[in-house]
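For the sake of transparency, this paper describes our internal protein records without simplification. An entry from our holdings is shown next, in its original layout:
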Amino acid sequence: MGAAAVELIDPRRPDDAVRIYSGTFGWPLSVGHRHRPRQGCTCQQARECPVPGAHPVPNAPVFHAGEDVARVLGQSPGAGLIAWTVTFDALVVPRTIGMAAMITLDRIAPVPCLLSEEKAVLLVLPATGRYAVATGPCEVRSGQDQWIALPPSHGVRWDTTPWIEQTSEPVGLLHGMDVGRHLRAAMRLDAGRAR
């Protein structure tokens, strides 16, 4: 008897993204603004938007069923996919600090990490982000009114996925305090370089 075929997930494909985020993780999702090549974001700032197509539309519905969000996402080419920080907290830090922390974190446990051009977003257990960093360039997003942009949103990709590639099983999230130790060390290193 052969081994079962493993279906690889490509979060750049909207159907795959919705299936894993909504189906496997149960994350509440919304469809965000659209990124239009050569025209910018569909928000009021258009070309000046700092995160084109990677932020929520005001008062957008929150979907808990994958089919609903997949349908709306399919009707909005280039739209961002937004996850509300209900089942996790997000630590938003400068990319250099996030990547420095990930070097040591990768040796301990997989920590889901999103990258954009300037930021890294590390996911931790819900309601524990506040224990990560008391000072410094760290924004904690937590609760139903906070959000993060997910692939396939424009300019966002996974450095470390929140699932195990071979099985599509979710990885366990760490406590914010545990991740915070590594972020603080990365911030000290970054401050030392700036001198």
Observations:
- The first helix runs from residue 14 to 24.
- The chain has four helices and seven strands.
